[in-house]
């Protein structure tokens, strides 16, 4: 289980949101610039491309190998559709320009489009110089959040599975075998596994009932593994509360130190707390 302090540090939602906004804004700005620098050239050359296309189709009424290569060259270099007078999505539109900007900062570089103007090529260099490090920072932060979420969901699934296995399923079994209500069965499960054991409800002890042979074996197995699972849950809960308490105490100490003009935090109280935190043995995860 991830340390609570690390989770709290990662849970700075405004910082990750701000970083994400900066990243998206940077990519969109790059897309606009590429669109303006390269899109104008494409629109200017469109009439020439259409003329070349008509000439090729008129010349090669029955296309041979060379003719196919010439037509393919028009398609590859211009992005011009061979079925109509329009271009494919790979041409320099705003959407394709923004996608191109994203492939630059992520270093994917499909190669279906690339800047052909001098201004576009120079801008691409500077855009990549600042965009690639920004992309690495964003990916690193997002990766940490994904790791945190993965660990969280792993523990969540573990806890939910334990609830189903040690509470819901036994509740159904006790309700059928003992004739208890669902509330009484859940109450018995918790009182038993928590070792409170009031004795007001006891399974497999009614002399008027004929229990199946597997019932007592199932009871013993459920108690053994259920105690271990509930002890683990309680242990994790204590660990979380202790770490939360330590975190907020250290935060309160830092605030007092900043208010008193001692931002370094070298007071005896904080030093003792830090030493205690270091010496405290970690709880098994």
UniProtKB/TrEMBL annotation:
Annotated TM spans: 12-35, 122-140, 152-173, 185-202, 214-234
What are the residue boundaries of the Potassium channel domain, all occurrences included?
A: 89-146, 164-242
Q: Name the predominant localization.
A: membrane
Q: Does the keyword Hydrolase apply?
A: no
What would be an example GO MF term here?
potassium ion leak channel activity
Per the UniProt record, one Pfam family is Ion_trans_2
Q: What is the annotated signal peptide range for this record?
A: none
Source superkingdom: Eukaryota
Q: Give GO BP annotations, semicolon-separated.
A: stabilization of membrane potential
The UniProt keywords, alphabetically, are: Ion channel, Ion transport, Membrane, Potassium, Transmembrane, Transmembrane helix, Transport
The protein's location, in the record's own words, is: Membrane
One GO cellular component, as annotated? plasma membrane
- Quick one: where's region Disordered? 254-285
Q: How does it sit in the membrane?
A: Multi-pass membrane protein
Return the similarity comment.
Belongs to the two pore domain potassium channel (TC 1.A.1.8) family.
- What's the protein here called? Potassium channel, subfamily K, member 17
Which species is listed as the source?
Sphaeramia orbicularis (orbiculate cardinalfish)
Protein encoded by which gene: kcnk17
């Amino acid at each position: 289980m991830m340390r609570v302090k690390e989770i709290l540090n990662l849970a700075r939602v405004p910082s990750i949101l701000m970083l994400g906004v900066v990243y998206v804004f940077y990519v969109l700005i790059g897309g606009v610039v590429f669109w303006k620098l390269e899109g104008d050239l494409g629109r200017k050359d469109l009439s020439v491309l259409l003329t070349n296309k008509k000439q090729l189709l008129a010349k090669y009424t029955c296309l041979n190998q060379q003719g196919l290569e010439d037509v393919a060259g028009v398609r590859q270099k211009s992005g011009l559709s061979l079925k109509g007078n329009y271009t494919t999505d790979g041409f320099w539109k705003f959407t394709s320009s923004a996608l191109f900007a994203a492939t630059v900062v992520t270093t994917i570089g499909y190669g279906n489009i690339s800047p052909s103007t001098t201004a576009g090529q120079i801008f691409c260099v500077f855009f990549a110089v600042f965009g690639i490090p920004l992309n690495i920072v964003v990916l690193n932060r997002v990766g940490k959040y994904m790791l945190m979420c993965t660990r969280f969901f792993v523990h969540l699934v573990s806890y939910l599975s334990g609830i189903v296995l040690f509470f819901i399923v036994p509740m159904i079994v006790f309700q059928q075998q003992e004739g208890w209500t669902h509330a009484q069965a859940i109450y018995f499960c918790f009182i038993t596994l928590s070792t409170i054991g009031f004795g007001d409800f006891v399974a497999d002890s009614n002399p008027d009932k004929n229990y199946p042979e597997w019932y007592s074996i199932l009871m013993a197995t459920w108690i053994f593994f259920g105690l271990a699972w509930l002890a683990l849950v309680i242990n994790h809960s204590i660990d979380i509360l202790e770490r939360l308490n330590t975190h907020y105490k250290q935060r309160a100490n830092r605030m007092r130190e900043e208010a008193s003009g001692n931002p370094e935090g070298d007071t005896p109280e904080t030093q003792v707390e830090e030493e205690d935190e270091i010496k405290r043995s970690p709880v098994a995860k």
